[in-house]
Design brief:
- This protein has 337 residues and is α/β, with parallel strands linked by helices.
- It folds into two domains: 4-158, VC0802-like (2-Layer Sandwich), CATH 3.30.2130; 166-324, 3-Layer(aba) Sandwich (Rossmann fold), CATH 3.40.50.
- The chain has helices at 17-30, 51-58, 76-90, 109-123, 175-186, 200-214, 232-243, 259-262, 274-283, 315-321, and strands at 4-11, 36-40, 43-47, 64-74, 96-104, 128-129, 136-143, 146-158, 166-170, 190-197, 222-228, 246-248, 304-309, 323-324.
- The chain is elongated, with a radius of gyration of 24 Å.
- Mean pLDDT is 86; it is low at 328-337.
């Protein structure tokens, strides 16, 4: 078959490798990328003409430990040849490197690692093995006659691959609830973002949150539900009575959890320091939004529920795609664009 350009996506070992591989295939398909996906041990090989673009697609996906770019090959000897070629491309005399091997079947990981290290030292004279802070980290994976070798270029976010369990996350658009939603996804949960709209600014902030998260995870595991009412607190209280347990961005030092939600909020995230919230929120690359949610309940009011989800989207796509949610006895709404 000969070498083929390949991205290596490494599983964290948490959750299900099959779930992660399924998410990788769905995201590639939705992006129109016709790549070959193969599982080798705990690594997922994505054979495509632009492996760097593949890395960009999955560097934020929960369940990913690290990503590498290189080439796949057939068998032990072909991987050594490929590793030597990569070394000549990425290493110079005096540079330090390390090889991190993974092998299943008859080949031992130690044998693969030793042979690959020797091949690289021979290919680039004057290079040296350096376990501590190497300039280049080579990743090699082999399962019988199928394998790949690459250079690690990015860490993943860690966490757990998306599974079957679901959670509703109450989001205002502010930093604390946004971080809780991301942490829920990192925990392997399928997430419904639930937003009680207080004004257009709050809806815009939540649309930005959905957009950001949809580019990090398999979007088929993400949805948005917007409760539009002149009395958001009353509407959210009514939702909580039938919506089951939810996670909220309530934290040490914030306003008390409303009584109407107290027994329904299953995850006020008290374990993170404010500094950690700020760090995680900055990583989400969202514009700071100060929630103006008024928790005073004003009695029943007409409520309209809008829904969107299941696809990777930009902010304008989210705002344009929100459609009234169907209720029993109502006409079937038109599908989102």
């Amino acid at each position: 078959m000969g070498p083929r350009r390949t991205a290596i996506v490494r599983w964290t070992g948490r959750g299900s490798l099959e779930s992660l591989a399924g998410s990788v295939r769905r995201v590639l398909g939705a992006a129109g990328v016709r790549a070959r996906v193969r599982v080798v041990g705990g690594s997922i090989l994505v054979q495509w003409q632009d492996p760097v673009a593949v890395v960009a697609m999955f560097r934020r996906m929960p369940g990913v430990a690290w990503l590498a770019v290189g080439e796949s090959g057939s068998g032990f000897r072909e991987l050594l040849v490929t590793g030597s070629a990569l070394a000549r491309r990425y290493l110079r005399r005096g540079d330090g490197f390390v090889v991190k091997p993974e092998a299943t079947g008859r080949t031992l990981a130690s044998d693969l690692g030793g042979a690959m290290t020797s091949a690289i030292l021979e290919a680039v004279k004057g290079s040296r093995v350096r376990e501590d802070k190497p300039k280049v980290m080579f990743r090699a994976a082999l399962d019988g006659t199928v394998g790949a070798v690459g250079v690690e270029i990015s860490e993943g976010p860690g966490g757990t691959a998306s599974g079957r369990d679901e959670a509703s996350c109450l989001v205002s658009g502010g930093r604390h609830s946004s971080v809780v939603a991301w942490m829920s996804l990192l925990s392997g949960l399928r997430v419904k973002l639930v937003h009680a709209k207080s004004d257009d600014a709050s809806l815009l902030a939540v649309a930005k949150l959905y957009s950001e998260l949809s580019h990090r995870v398999d979007p088929s595991f993400l949805s948005l539900e917007v409760i539009d009412s002149r009395s958001p607190a009353s509407a959210l209280s009514a939702w909580s009575r039938k919506g089951g347990v939810a996670f909220g961005g309530f934290h040490a030092g914030c306003s008390p959890i409303p009584r109407s939600l107290g027994r329904k909020v299953g995850g006020p995230l008290l374990v993170l320091s404010e500094e950690k919230y700020l760090e995680e929120y900055a990583d989400l690359s969202l514009k700071e939004y100060a929630s103006k949610m008024d928790w005073a309940e004003r009695g029943p009011d007409r409520v309209r529920t809008l829904a969107f989800g299941g696809k990777r989207a930009d902010v304008s796509d989210v705002l344009d795609g929100l459609k009234p949610q169907r209720t029993p006895g109502s006409a079937r709404p038109r599908p989102s664009r």
